[in-house]
UniProtKB/TrEMBL annotation:
It comes from Flavivirga amylovorans. This is Glutamine synthetase III. It holds the Pfam family Gln-synt_C. It comes from the Bacteria. Residues 178-615 form the GS catalytic domain.
Length: 728
């Protein structure tokens, strides 16, 4: 009897849920472990407080004496909460978060010791960068790197450690993390958007980008997950026959949350509250054991940090509830995958959401300006936006027959489509007073009402306008949102910058009034961006053909999609917007291509191992039982032997053919891996892994899954889909 599977099932059935008590109100818990504005007011001198808030709001430098004061106050606050260590917390390009803990404790001679934390330790640290991905930057320059304090994301306490959010850069200044380019992109979009806002309101001094992510995940019993080598090593199942009941009945979506999962969520949410992560909604998703968690949106840099932190905490809290969290985009074949919708908008320091309609025609013209410029930005850079969400694991959603598709398009709804149609008819050049009035009253003026019934939400669109924000739905559930947010904010910044140049030119050269000039430029944008707008069902053959005619890219695999990250256009874009230098852009590309190769390589090895060393021996064992049975039948039957043993003999043959199928394909896969590994060029290697190695997964899996249906359940070694998905 395969002990691990049955042991795991037994344990999981005997499991008693952990009791979770919520004694305090959430609003009281909120931000308790964060060195936030409230805490700073309490602990900092007036000068230090002002220094930090200026840095947060306007990017002003913090001088050394202020940093010393802040460090010392942070330490006092942390010590008062039983903290012993501090760490610079950062997000290297491995995709997870990194930290190296140092104690506050220091000896001062004569057998005495104190707790110490100065400005220099707060501001900068030098972790050894050589074990983090650097994409060649390391070779070109030096192995050393440093982390530097990001005052715009507040320090927090996790466990007994004070965590200080930092950027991570090479000694020569190149970014080695997700945060550095994100901060630069946010700066770029702030500059460009603030300049546009001044057309409408001179008081605007700053525009921030906001992000509200929706994190989907699966919760699987820890023992059951541990019994599967594929889940343990790759985060997904590489084989397994679909269960008789899957998600056909849709009885999980928004259903009552099972108790054990609910207890996990409550504890997770309490942790989030303490860390100032404003989580608000939780619900069941479409697939069995699939759930979603979403916060109230925040400033994008903070939201990205919070999502990275959340993904880390989820795993730790899950362990206490005997769960394993699967963040993978496609843990189970034939079952819905997981994504992470990125809800995005821009808002001013005067409190206006630039993607929400306003009360006056002028504020609605401002809304239209940002709305249409965003569409234009996506139109110009659709391939790059696709590249922003490319990964080996997200390919299972985007390239496959599941919404959203690999083709980027924008959904805006019927009503706004009509508004754009009206605006397209605006006269070229100067507008007559009648036309202006007509526009203000009947087009621009009506937008708030239009948006109120913007209910026809298209769930399959990868980039949809949903009332007062755009929702980038193609982001993968494992992704660090920093990557797509850097790209989205950069392309919008570039677009707004170009828009301003065009409008100003019309004002100066053609002597148009400001709003006339804006209408004129927007009209041209509407005309030239039609190919990106799509209201239909976002996947399937018909749309693929249509998209091809429109000239939209349809890169189904990561190696193909990633190329847009190093196109001439992209390199120039990042350089112009001061988001990444050519070296940084190219290094990142190399890191992502290499990550892709490694993912497929690991999956291929794990699959080969399971198929040959778990499945084949089990099949042989079962075949031997059948052979023994046939021998016995031969002994006791004479004439009737052929008819009574017919099915057994068929089974024996069928098993042999699947064993052959496995062995032949695993051998092929190993050979293809060898060939792929021989490529020096990483692009060629990635393509070989993608097009030669990966397709063999399906062939190996096919025979394994067939055997699962043939072999006696009692001796099947791998925990089955039904056990993984329906154990509560
Ligand atoms: P759904 O998409 O499931 O219908 P909601 O529309 O309520 O859900 O919002 C989903 C997410 O969008 C939430 O995280 C919410 O905070 C976020 N969100 C709402 N308004 C904005 C905004 N202006 N900018 C960014 N995110 C927003
Ligand atoms: Mg959503």
């Amino acid at each position: 009897m395969p002990t691990l599977r049955f042991h795991a099932i037994k344990e999981s059935l005997a499991y008693k849920p952990v009791r979770v008590e919520e004694k305090e109100r959430r609003s009281d818990l909120f931000g308790k472990n964060v060195f936030n504005e409230n805490t700073m007011r309490q602990y900092l001198t007036k000068d230090a407080f002002k220094g930090v808030t200026n840095a947060i709001q306007y990017g002003k430098k913090i001088d050394r004496s202020i940093a010393d004061q802040v460090a010392s106050s942070m330490k006092d606050w942390a010590l008062s909460k039983g903290v012993t260590h501090y760490t610079h917390w950062f997000q290297p390009l491995t995709g997870s978060t990194a930290e190296k803990h140092d104690a506050f404790f220091e000896t001062i001679g004569d057998g005495m010791a104190i707790e110490k934390f100065g400005g220099s330790q707060l501001v900068q640290q030098e972790p050894d960068a050589s074990s983090f991905p650097s994409g060649g930057i390391r070779n070109t320059f030096e192995a050393r790197g440093y982390t530097a304090w990001d005052p715009t994301s507040p320090a927090f306490i996790y466990g007994t450690t004070l965590c200080i959010p930092t950027i991570f850069v090479a000694y020569t200044g190149e970014a080695l993390d997700y945060k550095t380019p994100l901060l630069r992109a946010l700066h770029a979009v702030d500059d460009a958007a603030t300049a546009i806002c001044k057309y409408f309101d001179k008081n605007v001094k700053k525009v921030s980008s906001s992000l509200g992510w929706e994190q989907e995940y699966f919760l699987i019993d820890k023992m059951l997950a541990a019994s599967r080598p594929d889940i343990s090593l790759t985060g997904r199942t590489l084989l397994g026959h679909s269960p008789a009941k899957g998600q056909q009945l849709d009885d999980h979506y928004f259903g009552s949350i099972p108790n054990r999962a609910l207890n996990f969520m409550r504890e997770l949410e309490t942790e989030c509250m303490l860390l100032g992560i404003p989580v608000k909604t939780r619900h069941n998703e479409v697939a069995p054991n699939q759930f979603e968690l979403a916060p109230i949106y925040e400033e994008a840099n903070l939201a990205v940090d919070h999502n990275s932190l959340l993904m880390d905490i989820m795993g730790r809290v899950a362990a206490r509830h005997n769960f394993k969290v699967l963040l993978h985009e496609k843990p189970f074949e034939g079952i819905n995958g997981s994504g992470k919708h990125n809800n995005w908008s821009l808002s001013t320091d005067t409190g206006v959401n630039l993607l929400g309609p306003g009360k006056t025609p002028m504020s609605n013209l401002q809304f239209l300006t940002f709305f249409i410029n965003t569409i234009k930005a996506v139109h110009e850079h659709e391939a790059l936006l696709r590249a922003a969400i490319a990964s080996a694991s997200n390919d299972h959603r985007l390239g496959a027959n599941e919404a959203p598709p690999a083709i980027i398009s924008v959904f805006i709804g019927e009503q706004l489509t009509k508004v754009l149609e009206e605006l397209e008819g605006v006269t070229k050049g100067k507008l007559s007073p009648q036309e202006k009035t007509e526009l203000k009253l009947n087009v621009v003026g009506k937008i708030p009402d239009v948006l109120l019934d913007n209910t026809d939400r298209n769930r399959t669109s990868p980039f949809a306008f949903t009332g007062n924000k755009f929702e980038f739905r193609a982001v993968g559930s494992t992704a660090n949102c920093g990557n797509p947010m850097t790209i989205l904010n950069t392309i919008v910044a570039k677009q707004l910058k170009d828009f301003k140049i065009e409008v100003d030119k019309l004002i100066d050269k053609k002597d148009l009034k400001k709003d006339e000039a804006i209408f004129n430029v927007l009209r041209e944008y509407i005309k030239s961006t039609k190919s990106i707008l799509f209201e239909g069902n976002g996947y399937g053959k018909a749309w693929e053909e249509e998209a091809k005619k429109r000239g939209l890219s349809n890169n189904k695999t990561t190696p193909e999609a990633l190329k847009a990250k190093v196109s001439k256009q992209t390199i120039a874009l990042f350089e112009e917007m001061n988001v990444m230098s050519r070296i940084e852009t190219e290094a990142r590309y190399e890191i992502e291509v290499e990550a892709y190769i490694m993912h497929i390589q690991i999956e291929s090895r794990v699959l080969g191992d399971i198929a040959r060393n778990h499945i084949v021996p089990t099949a042989v064992k079962y075949q031997n039982i059948l052979i023994e049975n046939v021998r016995g039948l031969k002994e006791i039957f004479d004439k009737k032997f052929n008819s009574v043993s017919k099915e057994q003999i068929n089974l024996i043959e069928e098993i042999s053919s699947h064993i052959e199928g496995i062995n032949v394909n695993v051998t092929k896969m190993i050979n293809e891996r060898k060939k792929a590994n021989a490529f020096e060029d990483i692009e060629k290697k990635a393509l070989a892994y993608c097009n030669q190695v990966k397709p063999l997964f399906d062939d190996v899996r096919y025979h394994c899954d067939k055997l699962e249906l043939l072999v006696d359940d009692e001796i099947w070694p791998l925990t089955k889909y039904r056990e993984l998905l329906f154990t509560r």
